[in-house]
Amino acid sequence: MKSWQAPVEVKVTAALLVGLPVAWALLDLVPVLGAGSGLEIFRIPALALILGGVVTTGLVLKLGSARIGGLVVTVVFALLHAFLLLAAALWWNKLFSGLSFAGYGYAFVLFNSMPLKRHILGVRA
């Protein structure tokens, strides 16, 4: 299997867009297993994983719209985690929301970086 030839910035961005929702879903397992919460708690992490997967697929295929879509996804979920940080009652939810806010913010910065632009646009960047 051929490895994905891309700059480190692109791989880090893809890992953040897929890894943060997976970690969020794992964190949501605590109330499901402990307090008997319903599976509705996984709706937003699943949406984040689907949108992150779509953007990551666009990055792998070097689609120009992946950068704009990625910027939108990172802003939306960074703001969501900022509000969850303010609203959370448990300290581990606050910690995770703060780290996720920082992760989506970093992904936003990486979407504006020149290596990612060169990866998607080629010599036109």
Biggest sheet features: none
Q: Helical region count?
A: 6
Give the rounded overall mean pLDDT.
Answer: 90
DSSP E strands, number: 0
Write the element-wise H/E pattern from the N-terminal end onward. HHHHHH
Strand content: under 5%
The coarse silhouette is elongated
List low-pLDDT spans.
none
Radius of gyration: 16 Å
Rounded to the nearest angstrom, the distance between the terminal CA atoms is: 29 Å
Structural class: mainly alpha
Helix percent reads over 70%
Task: Explain this structure.
- With 125 residues, the chain is mostly helical.
- The protein is 77% helix and 0% strand.
- It is built from 6 helices and no strands.
- The chain has helices at 8-27, 29-34, 43-60, 65-87, 91-111, 114-121.
- The model has no long low-confidence stretch (mean pLDDT 90).
How is the topology of this model organized?
Elements: H1 8-27, H2 29-34, H3 43-60, H4 65-87, H5 91-111, H6 114-121
Helix pairs in contact: 1-3, 1-5, 3-4, 4-5
Please describe the structure with a list of short key phrases separated by commas or semicolons.
elongated, single chain, 125 residues
Quick structural overview:
By secondary structure, the protein is an all-alpha fold. It is built from six helices and no strands.
